[in-house]
Amino acid sequence: MKVIVDNGIKSVKEIIPLLNGFEAIELIFLNSSDFNNSNIKDADALLIRSTVQINEALLVDTNVHFIGSATAGIDHMDTDYLNKKNIKWFYAAGCNGLSVSNYVMSSICFLMENNIFNSDNSVGIIGYGNVGKQLKKALDYFSIKNFVYDPFLHFDFLSNLELVKNCDLISLHVPLTSKTEFPTNNMINKGFLEDIKGKTLINTSRGGVVDEKKLIHENNINYISDVWVGEPSPSNDIVDFALLATPHVAGHSINGKINGTIMLINFLQRYINLEDRVKILNIKTMDNFMSSNNHLEIEADHQIEKYKKEYDIKLESDKFKKTYLNSKINEQKDTFVTARSNHLIRQDIKI
């Protein structure tokens, strides 16, 4: 069995040699930019990141029958095409939920330092999936009032959208959808933006969730964003407008990346039908590897400032804005990709 693996998948080269049952698998490592139809022609499986676009153009007339992504989203995969061709696929849902939550908490630290937010203010969370749950847990721990809206869930504590809009800060944690009961494409539209004038909006979901042109036109909202329309070539106007701007790295903690890798390898070993005895041994080995990359813990005095100490989001934003906005238009795509690859190194903070 021939498996082509993205070189950028965190620690995959260190983990796989520790495992049993993979001896018969031929592993070929490629950079994301080298994944093309010609190079994957005779591969049985692909292990990728979100930097590889999975579609008919890549897969037509190839031998690929399994694709695994070490990422929490599926925007880069044409799942309709995969299903139509009976190609099995997997993605590491929730692998970086804590990482993204920590990004929001670091943003809150910045806002507090600059008197834009205080502990008596409230946070509205839109989307109660893997990230939303982690964020609520952190806010509750620090006694920051919060309201959660998710139209697909029916927990008693959930609020309506109007209560969320009334909060001082709104954080978005939804997928980008168009043809669903509650579509999120341009969900943050002119009407929504008018309702949150003077407040703070944090977007770690997808660029298309926010109508960026309307946002700039309103010009009265503190916008913090890690995701952009047209990535990896967002408009200069929106990057310049944002109070804090980062190159899609909210989930890029050491722990989040390794967690995605382990989830992916675990699925692969199920896919190739390893014996249960071997799978159990491998899971223990991967757990030991993960434990050597422990999360940081909040101390007994639960200082919220620890989020900023571990990840200085202002430093990341300043670095990205300077390089991106000063790049020539035809070089900005490469600038974005480089900035994403050279983000600040950080560990997750666990409550």
Question: How are the elements arranged and paired?
Answer:
Layout lengths: L1 E5 L5 H4 L10 E5 L14 E4 L7 H4 L6 E4 L9 H6 L3 E4 L5 H17 L8 E5 L3 H12 L3 E5 L11 H5 L3 E4 L17 H6 L4 E4 L8 H7 L3 E4 L10 H6 L2 E2 L8 H18 L4 H16 L4 E2 L8 H5 L2 H13 L6 H10 L7 E2 L1
Parallel strand pairs: 1-2, 1-3, 3-4, 4-5, 6-7, 6-8, 8-9, 9-10, 10-11, 12-13
Helix pairs in contact: 4-5, 10-11, 13-14
How would you describe what is shown here?
With 351 residues, this protein is α/β, with parallel strands linked by helices. The chain has two domains: 2-91 and 254-291, NAD(P)-binding Rossmann-like Domain (Rossmann fold, 3-Layer(aba) Sandwich), CATH 3.40.50.720; 97-251 and 311-350, NAD(P)-binding Rossmann-like Domain (Rossmann fold). The protein has helices spanning 12-15, 56-59, 79-84, 97-113, 130-141, 161-165, 190-195, 212-218, 236-241, 254-271, 276-291, 306-310, 313-325, 332-341; strands spanning 2-6, 26-30, 45-48, 66-69, 88-91, 122-126, 145-149, 169-172, 200-203, 222-225, 244-245, 296-297, 349-350. The strands form three sheets. Strands 7-6-8-9-10-11 form a six-stranded parallel β-sheet. Strand 4 (66-69), helix 3 and strand 5 form a beta-alpha-beta unit. The longest helix has 18 residues, at 254-271. It is globular, with a radius of gyration of 21 Å. The N and C termini lie far apart (42 Å). The mean pLDDT is 94.
